[in-house]
Amino acid sequence: MNEKADKRPEPMDGGCPPWVLREYAILADGERGALVDPDGRIVWLCAPRWHSDAVFAALVGGGGYFGAEPDDRWRVWGGYYEDGTLIRVSRWVTADSVIECRDALAMPASEDRVVLLRRMRVERGAGRLRITLHPRPGFGADRVRDPRLEGDVWTAGAGGLRLRLAGAQRATWDPGSGLRGEVRLREGEQHDLVLELSTRADAPRLDAGQLWRETEEAWQRVVPDCSGLAAPRDARHAYAVLRGLTSSSGGMVAAATTSLPERANTGRSYDYRYAWVRDQAYAGLAVATHGPHELLDSAVRFTTERILADGDGLHPAYTVDGGPVPREHKLPLTGYPGGSDRIGNKAAAQFQLDAFGEALQLLATAAHHDRLTPETERAITVAVDAVERNWTRPDAGLWELDDRWWTQSRLSVVCGLRRVAGALRGRTAQRCADLADVVFAETRRRCLRPDGRWRRAADDDGPEAALLTPLARGCPPADDPSNAITRRYIEDELAEDGYLYRFVHPGVPLGEAEGAFLFCGYTMALAGDHLGDRTGALRWFERTRAACGPSGLFAEEYDVRQRQLRGNLPQAFVHALLLECAVRLGDASVLPV
Fold it and tell me: 532 φ, ψ to 5°?
C-alpha cells in the first residue's frame, strides 16, 4: 500500500477539535445554517445559501470558524434554545462566574445576505471572552483579502463575499490566524457582535438591537402554539427546525450539513444540503395535521413547481431554489472523524417512484385545506400522468438503493392517488381511484405473501420498515389484516431495545451495520396509532424522541449502544415525523390531511 498516497490531509484548524455530533447546536434562518459547538465556536456555515461553499468548515477539517468563548478553561458548559426559536444560548459556569452567549442568524433572511448575531452577557461575577474570527472561504481553499477597520466596523473580501464585523474594533487581524480580540464584562453587562457576509453592494447599518428585535418578532410569527399536543416544547422546537431549514423559495434542505458519517470509515457520508421532494412532502403532511401554516404552503409551492417543470423526469432532490444538484465529488479535506468529505449527491439522478406518491398526498392535502391553486391542480394531473406511465418501472425506493420493484413505492403511490380521489371531484378523481385500484391489485399480487404479510419487494421476502409509511397513511385501509401482520413482523425482526432499524443486513446483527433509523421509530408510532394501538404508539414515540442530543436535535440514525447521533444534522424529516406524532398522539383534534 502506498501510505503517502492514502494519508489524509491534516485539519486546517487543529486548534478547533471536533465534538461528538450530539453536542452541536444549529442556527438557521431558512437560507443557510450554522453549527455552534460547546466552546461557542461557529464551525460550519455555507454562504450565502445552503448549497454554497463553506466559509466556516472546521467541522469537516476545512478550516474557518468564529469563536466567542470564556477565557477560563476551568469551566463546564450547557445551553438551551429559547422556546419556539433557533435562538441558541450557550452557557458556561466557571469557578467564579456564569457567562452566556446568545446566538442567532438574523431574520427575516435574504438569499444574498447572511447576518450572524452574537450577544455575550455575564450573569454572575466578571468574565473575559476570547473573540476569534477566521473565515476560510471555499471550504478552506481561500483566504480573506484586504481586512481593514473602517470606523468601528471591520471589512474584508471573502471568496466573492463582502465581510463586515461590528463590535470588535479593538481586535487585531493577523494574516495567518484572522481576527483576535477579547471582551471584558462585569456582572450584568453585555456586548454584541454582528457579522455580515453579503453579495450585495449596499452596506446597511449593523444595528444589533434592531436586528435582535426583528429576529425575535420573526420567530414569534412563524411558530404556532402547541400546548394541546403531546410534548408541546418538542413540537414547537420541531416547527422551529423545519422553518429554519426552509428557504423563501420554498425548498427545505434535508439537513444543514454534508459528510457527517452514518457509520465510521465505511464511505457512508453524504451531502444533504438539498431539498428532497419526498422530505418536503413529509414536512408538509406533518404540519397539515396541526393546521394550515406557511410551511405547508412552501412545501406545496415547491413541489408544484418541480412537477410542472420536470413531469416524468422529476428528480428526487434539487437545490432549494429548484436548480440541479451538483454531481457528487470529493473535497481534499480530512473530514469529520470517520467520514469523507464530499459535495453533491448522486441520488438526485435516480428514479424514485414513491416521490410521486408522497407528492400526490401533499397536493391532496392542499386541497383539503383550501390551498388548491390552478397550478397545483395542473401539477396533480402531471403527476398522475407520470405515475400511469411509470408505476411498473423498478425504482430506487425510499432508501435510494438499487432499482427493484419496491413494495413501499407502489403503496405510497396508491395512497397518493386515493387521497387525490377523495379531495377532488369529477373525472380526475375517478381516474385516480381507478388507477389506484390497478396499482394496488398488481402490487398485492406480486408483493403480498400467502400468510398476509407484505414483502419488502417483489423479489425479497425480508422485513422492511419503509412499509410503515404507507401503513400509517391508510394504505391498505386500517381494517386490512395485512397491516397488523406486517407491523408485527417488522417489530419482531427489526426492533431492538425500543428502537427500529430499516432492514436486515445479511450476516450482520442489528446495530452493527448501521444505527437505528429515527424516522422509522416515528412511523412505527404513527402506524400503531392508525391501527388502534395507542399504548404501543406512545411507547414508540417516547422512546424515539429520547434519541436526541442536549440541543434537542435529531440526526438520521442513532447508535443505541453508544447513545450517539449518526449522520447529517439536523435531519428534517425526523423532526417532521416528531411533529406529526405530537399532533396525532396529543389531545387536540387532528385535522384531516
Answer: 90, 5
End-to-end CA distance of the chain: 57
pTM over 0.90: yes
Q: In this structure, are residues 25 and 255 in contact, taking their beta carbons and an 8 Å threshold?
A: no
The answer to whether the beta carbons of residues 27 and 240 sit under 8 Å apart is no
Separation CA 285–CA 587 (nearest Å): 19
Query: Contact, 198 vs 227, CB < 8 A?
Result: no
State the Cα–Cα distance between residues 6 and 320, nearest whole angstrom.
Answer: 35
Cell digits for 151? Answer: 470606523
371, three cell numbers: 390551498
Q: Using CA atoms, how far apart are residues 391 and 394, in angstroms rounded to an integer?
A: 8
Which residues, in sequence order, are bridge partners of residue 406?
Answer: 457
What is residue 11's predicted lDDT score, i.e. its pLDDT?
A: 62
Rg (CA), the chain: 24
The CA distance from 494 to 167, in Å, is 53
pLDDT (tens digit per residue) in 365-403: 999 999 999 999 999 999 999 999 999 999 999 999 999
DSSP H stretches of helix in 369-426? 374-390, 407-423
How many angstroms separate the CA atoms of 432 and 418, rounded? 7
